[in-house]
Amino acid sequence: MFEHKIVPILERLAPTEQKMLKSSLKSLDFEDDLKYNSFGHKFREMMTKILHRLAPDKDVLACSWYVNEHGNKPTRRQRLLYAIKSGLEDEFIESELEIDLVTISKRLGKVVSELNKYTHFGDGTLDANEAIGEAFVSESIDFLLHFFSSIDEIRTQIVNAYEVLLNQKITEATVNDVMQEIDVLATHYTVDGNTIDTISVTDINAHYIYIYVDGSVDITHQYGSDGDLRRGDGVEFEESYPFIVNMKVPVFDPLDIEIETDDIDVDTDKYYDNGSEGEESDESNYDDEPYEPDEPDYDDEPYEPDEPDYDDER
């Protein structure tokens, strides 16, 4: 009866976690006084699996903000913190992104409190009748949805605020300094400007922020010297080329934006176009011609075997 409730959750789970959630629900199919305890135990194990996937030990321990609070292993709260901010420092989030961490901490506190509730459920201490048990299962699924939505909302708030800063930091000069792909195209060229269409954070881990940028750069090409141009022997024309930048920035200094040559890919294919676009061709445009097969379409013909079907013979 709860299968429909887990549909929006399944896509957020790894394959093993999906199996664990479905298995926990199958526990309810048995007429057993401890079936709700069995559900709770499996649900607890699944939540542990999810937390460790979102925030592996080695990644949390590598964060500069990590403090050993319990046996050199991350607490549930610290895992949740990693899931929403990875290696970013609180000071950067508060001062540069202007996000109130007090409010975030309160929201996380409620999630951790609920998580602890589910962690201790299923140890054989609950004497649940059907009404209590069914309500608990329903609340468990609701919590799982709330768990993911809370992480998504807070992380999105942080990432969006950071992307606003990136728009200010990634300037024309920064991009223009690495347009070496254009060097091979002309004797001289001038970068007239560029347009940045997309700036997005694709991932954050304990060490780096990964950033994707795309846009276009406007170039004036010059063939020949300035003297050749004055004499009419040179050529000058304008072109625009799309570019993509994939770069990483250290989490300890998220505003240290430096685009290296290897980070940028400029698509100059149009420069090598033979210029035939729009011109008439001697060759036929086969896409516009109706298909007239030399032989009949056998799918349209009735099947007439050359020999009898031996299966029909007695």
Report what the structure shows.
- This protein has 314 residues and is α+β, with helices and mostly antiparallel strands.
- The chain has two domains: 3-168; 172-270, no CATH class.
- The chain contains ten helices and four strands; from the N terminus they run H-H-H-H-H-H-H-H-H-E-E-H-E-E.
- The protein has helices at residues 7-10, 15-26, 35-54, 57-61, 76-85, 90-95, 101-120, 130-169, 172-176, 226-231; strands at 188-204, 208-223, 235-250, 264-266.
- The chain has a four-stranded antiparallel beta sheet.
- Strand 1 (188-204) and strand 2 (208-223) form a beta hairpin.
- The longest helix has 40 residues, at 130-169.
- The chain starts with 6 loop residues before the first helix and ends in a 48-residue tail after the last strand.
- Specify the helix fraction band: 40-55%
Number of domains: 2
Number of β-strand runs: 4
Order of helices and strands: HHHHHHHHHEEHEE
Outline the low-pLDDT stretches. Answer: 274-314
Radius of gyration: 31 Å
Largest sheet: 4 strands, antiparallel
**Category by helix and strand content:** alpha+beta
Topology (SSEs and partners):
Blueprint: H1 7-10, H2 15-26, H3 35-54, H4 57-61, H5 76-85, H6 90-95, H7 101-120, H8 130-169, H9 172-176, E1 188-204, E2 208-223, H10 226-231, E3 235-250, E4 264-266
Antiparallel strand pairs: 1-2, 2-3, 3-4
Helix pairs in contact: 2-3, 3-7, 3-8, 5-7, 5-8, 7-8
Labels describing this entry:
single chain; 314 residues; alpha+beta; four-stranded antiparallel beta sheet; 10 helices; 4 strands; elongated; disordered C terminus
